[in-house]
């Protein structure tokens, strides 16, 4: 009898303590816990590396008021759902899921934890507690396309795709449009790697493209392996993807697209702390600083560099849109009329090549 | 579609290189499994070998020392598995998985200061006039010594298992550890040596990726080759030459599908992407209809008193 009493008392006080803790958290006195789910290792030197830099920036900004946790190399699909669930159970207040393939898992887990805020990168499904955010990488692709078109001597540009999703297809189209503008004879060879991160496979894909005559290789995969393959080949131009990859500058890497997630991650964490967080859809580009263009190296002729920088400036101040008509789809049907620009809805769901690209998009 | 864009000579030379890490890892695991032990830690030992080899090659400037260090690194890590399964008699499946996780973490830690560095290049062997033979020359005689070592290792493993007393003892231990023990063979010692051999081979395979195939260090860069090696051993029904065939099939079709994509062949990419797995499995399953079975004691714990 006595034991039972004690147990009840213990449970009550435990519940009370728990209740206090929860209240304290809502008041902002306790640490805000921010979780990150990464698709590759934080040392990939590309995509995940930059997201992790954003996480570290959050820690630096808020110091003791925040606690961050992350899990790396999480497979897209059911595994990710387990990881997110565990993070939510462990008391995360805000969870960033940083790969396209986490879209449905994020929505599923968010349903189960209505009080936890979720932020999904590069997807399009939102809920009351799920925001989406992405960067207009295609603006950077336009600049790469221009430089690629000017730099190629064989007129064959290789492109390593990851998965045939709108984000990747958008990038291919944007690069192609501007490569053709710079050099009407340019052709694209596209290889789908079906992975975001597999250095050996990415290196193989780059080598195959180089063997088939490409002297510029663009990549939409996360590791620096294609850079190493190009360096080995000796006369092949590459661009840093997601991160500066400056260890391969000034050649083969002649420029790069750099993702800068830090300001966004800081702002969203702050919103959770202040209780002002709402579900939003953010899509920023060069102008807002979410997409950076890495230094264009001296391997690029001065006039080409100047053109690329002018293009960057016009994209940044919105005087020029990377998808401006006249443009046709691959099958020749009209896409954009003279002077017309693509709206965000079309861009977000882009599932077709523009005219001039050969081959089919895997369905 | 432009098939003429594919250079068959470069293609074949390319897949010989692509298959080599797989050959090393798989032939090592074959010996381990022949001794009756199932080590699922191949991926962990490979990635550890990849960074040990890379770091040593960068620090000393010698790729050959790098490969030596990779073999040592893989073998040392496998000692952890030896301790868990042969001394502490822990479950082999769980211990192997733990070894993989441990290897991935350890390599990430060791590799932190080696990201973005270019390793010294291992030169191709100079075969002199042989390399000038049309077609055959560039395919067979333009590689580094490690690639030939991989093929030699398969041949040696086959010969040792089939023709020597040592091979007979190893197989006896794998088929019936109690009988082997009764005959006076040191089961634990023999298995320890087999596991260390497997670790050294996996380490060499990992270093081949980080020093030659890619060449750079990136966390997690083996990206599942160790698991494919494990599957390959089973589908090759524990036979060295079939294993070599399987590795070349897998490497070849992987390269071929990238080449076909680049040439714009109108086969849906999804089918091309899954074809290496599918075709390798189908061919090896057909070959293994002769019901050659796994070593009878595979995965079973041995204790001298039992």
Description:
The complex is a heterodimer of chains A (363) and B (306). Chain A is α/β, with parallel strands linked by helices. Chain A is built from 11 helices and 14 strands. Chain A has 2 domains: 30-136 and 261-284, 3-Layer(aba) Sandwich (Rossmann fold); 137-258 and 291-348, Rossmann fold (3-Layer(aba) Sandwich). Chain A has helices at 2-27, 47-62, 78-89, 103-112, 137-151, 166-182, 199-211, 225-233, 262-274, 302-316, 344-348; strands at residues 32-37, 66-71, 94-97, 117-121, 130-135, 156-161, 187-192, 216-219, 237-240, 253-259, 281-284, 291-294, 327-328, 334-336. Chain A starts with a helix and ends in a 15-residue tail after the last helix. Chain B has 306 residues and is mainly alpha-helical. Chain B has one domain (3-115, 141-288): ABC transporter involved in vitamin B12 uptake, BtuC. In chain B, 69% of the residues lie in helices and 0% in strands. Chain B is built from 12 helices and no strands. In chain B, helix 2 crosses helix 9 (187-213), helix 3 (63-87) packs antiparallel against helix 4 (92-110) and helix 3 (63-87) packs antiparallel against helix 9 (187-213). Chain B is globular, with a radius of gyration of 20 Å. Chain B starts with 7 loop residues before the first helix and ends in a 19-residue tail after the last helix. The mean pLDDT of chain B is 90. The interface between A and B is large, with 44 and 41 residues. Chain B: It is a multi-pass membrane protein. Chain B: It is found in: Cell membrane. Chain B: This is ABC transporter permease.
